[in-house]
Write a structure and sequence with these properties.
By secondary structure, the chain is α/β, with parallel strands linked by helices. It has two domains: about 25-350, Alkaline Phosphatase, subunit A; about 365-440, Arylsulfatase, C-terminal domain (2-Layer Sandwich). The protein has 13 helices and 14 strands. The strands form two sheets. The chain has a ten-stranded mixed sheet, with helices on both faces. α7 runs parallel beside α8 (about 230-255). The chain starts with 5 loop residues before the first helix and ends with a helix.
Length: about 450
C-alpha cells in the first residue's frame, strides 16, 4: 500500500522561522567628554559612572570617536549620517534660524524605507534640531519619529531640571519630575508595549546647563548649600553620576529585553569649559575644535558584540551611528549607500571581529555660523592616525594649526611655522588635500 509522504516533505521543506531581530538603544549624553567618564581613564577628576563602565566591561569602547564640538550638529549626524556642511546644521539650532530640513532622510525614515521588516521607533529627551519652520513641538514627528516624548531644546530659563515643558507627540504639558528621571520613565513606559524589534534614542539633557544639585538619592556627593555656579565642577560631576544612576535603572528596568538589545552610549560633544580640569584645558573644551571639544565617549554593548570586551583605537565618527543602527536593524549597507549620500560607516565590523583593522583613514569635524548655506565663520578640522589639522576662516589665507597627536595629545605645540619637519610638511599637504576633497564631495 502506498502512503503519501507529501505532508512529511512539506514539513521538512518548510522554511525555518525567522530569528527575531535585536533591538537597538542609543543613550546620548549632553556635554560629556572622555575626561569625565571613569572607564576611559583619561581625566584626573572623574564622576562615578559604574553603569556606563559596565557597558564597557561587556562591550567595545572606542578610544578615538569624534563628534562636532556642539550639540545640534552631532544630533543631526545621528539622524542623517551626514556631515554638517550637507545638512546646514553647523551650530546650535535656534528658534528663528535654520533647522534640520525635512528633506533630509532621517534614521526612522531610513528604517521604514530599507529595513527588511518593520521596526518600531521612538525618541526621548532633548531634540534641539527643530523650530516652527519644521513643525514646532511636532518637529521630531515631522522628521519621521513615530513617538516622541521630551523637549524641543535645552532647559532654557525659566525652565529648570525640576520645572520644564514636556512635549509628547506635539502636545505640551508642564513637568515637575527631575528631567533625567522623567526621560527614563518615558522610555520604560513605551517599551512595555512597543513591538519588537525597535530602535530608540534616549537623549539626556544631563550634564548640560543649568548646573544644579540633583536629587540626593541619585548621587554620592556631599554638595554644599551654595549657588551651584560657584562650584560648577563639583555639581557637574554630581549631575553625571545622577545620569549614570538613571542609566542603571533604565537597563535594569528592561528586564529580559536587555539581553536582546544592543546599547550604544555616546555624547554629543566634549566637556564644557566650566567643568574642565587640567590637563584638559577650558580653552580646548566644548565649542572648540580641539580634542576636548570633539573627542567623545562611545561604547557599544549587546548581542552584536562577539568575543571579549575590548578597546578599539581606530578612528570613528558620530555619523557612523546612523549606519551602525541601520545595519543592526538588517539594512543592507550597499543598498543604503546606493540610495543616499551618507558620510557614516557602520561600526558593526568592529563589533563582530576583535581583529578588525581600521576602516577610516581620517575623521572630520566642523563648526560654522550661522546655520544654513551661507556662513560668516567657519572652522574645519581633520585628522589621521597621527596628525590633526585645524583650518579657520572662509577663504585663503586660512588660519592653520597642525598638531602631532601621538606626541602632543593636548595640542600645545602648533607645528606650522619655521623649522617644520619634513613629516609635518607632508602631513599638512595631505590633510589639506583630503579636507578639500571632503568638502567638494
Amino acid at each position: 500500500m502506498f502512503t503519501s509522504c507529501l505532508p512529511l516533505l512539506a514539513l521538512c521543506a518548510a522554511p525555518a522561522l525567522p530569528v527575531p531581530q535585536d533591538n537597538t538603544l542609543v543613550l546620548l549624553s549632553d556635554d560629556l567628554g572622555v575626561d569625565i567618564v571613569t572607564c576611559y581613564l583619561e581625566g584626573p577628576v572623574v564622576a562615578p559612572t559604574p553603569n556606563i563602565d559596565s557597558l564597557a566591561r561587556e562591550g567595545v569602547l572606542f578610544r578615538n570617536a569624534w563628534a562636532n564640538p556642539v550639540c545640534s550638529p552631532t544630533r543631526a549626524h545621528l539622524q542623517t549620517g551626514r556631515h554638517a556642511f550637507r545638512t546646514g546644521v553647523g551650530m546650535v539650532v535656534t528658534v528663528n534660524g535654520w533647522a534640520l530640513p525635512l528633506s533630509e532622510t532621517t534614521l526612522p525614515e531610513a528604517l521604514g524605507l530599507y529595513a527588511p521588516s518593520p521596526v518600531a521607533d521612538a525618541y526621548f529627551g532633548k531634540w534641539h534640531l527643530g523650530n516652527a519652520s519644521v513643525g514646532g513641538t511636532a518637529a521630531p514627528n515631522a522628521a519621521g519619529w513615530s513617538h516622541f516624548a521630551g523637549t524641543e531644546t535645552n532647559l532654557n530659563k525659566p525652565q529648570t531640571y525640576f520645572a520644564w515643558t514636556h512635549v509628547e507627540n506635539g502636545i505640551s504639558t508642564q513637568a515637575k519630575e527631575y528631567a533625567t528621571t522623567r526621560t527614563v520613565d518615558d522610555f520604560l513606559e513605551w517599551r512595555k508595549t512597543a513591538p519588537e524589534p525597535w530602535v530608540a534614542i534616549v537623549a539626556f539633557h544631563a550634564p548640560h546647563d543649568p548646573v544644579h544639585a540633583p536629587p540626593s538619592h541619585l548621587h554620592s556627593f556631599n554638595l554644599p548649600n551654595i549657588e551651584p555656579r560657584m562650584r560648577p565642577r563639583l555639581f557637574y560631576r554630581a549631575m553625571v553620576e545622577a545620569m549614570d544612576t538613571e542609566i542603571g535603572r533604565l537597563l535594569a528596568g528592561m528586564g529580559a529585553q536587555r539581553a536582546n538589545t544592543n546599547v550604544i552610549f555616546m555624547a554629543d560633544n566634549g566637556t564644557p569649559s566650566s567643568a574642565a580640569v587640567q590637563p584638559f584645558t577650558p580653552a580646548h573644551a566644548k565649542l572648540t575644535p580641539y580634542e576636548g571639544g570633539v573627542n567623545v565617549p562611545l561604547i557599544i554593548s549587546g548581542p552584536a558584540v562577539k568575543g571579549n570586551a575590548r578597546e578599539v583605537n581606530s578612528l570613528v565618527h558620530s555619523t557612523d551611528i546612523f549606519s551602525t543602527v541601520l545595519e543592526l536593524s538588517g539594512v543592507d549597507q550597499d543598498v543604503l549607500h546606493s540610495n543616499l549620500t551618507i558620510d557614516g560607516i557602520s561600526l558593526v565590523p568592529y563589533l563582530e571581529d576583535p581583529k578588525q583593522a581600521g576602516i577610516r583613514g581620517h575623521v572630520f569635524s566642523e563648526l560654522f555660523v550661522p546655520n544654513g548655506t551661507w556662513h560668516n565663520q567657519e572652522t574645519r578640522v581633520i585628522r589621521n592616525k597621527r596628525y590633526k589639522l585645524i583650518r579657520s576662516g572662509l577663504q585663503e589665507p586660512f588660519v592653520l594649526e597642525l598638531y602631532d597627536l601621538s606626541f602632543d595629545p593636548f595640542e600645545t605645540n602648533n607645528l606650522i611655522g619655521p623649522g617644520m619637519s619634513n613629516s609635518a610638511q607632508i602631513a599638512l599637504r595631505r590633510l589639506r588635500a583630503k579636507l578639500d576633497l571632503i568638502l567638494a564631495s
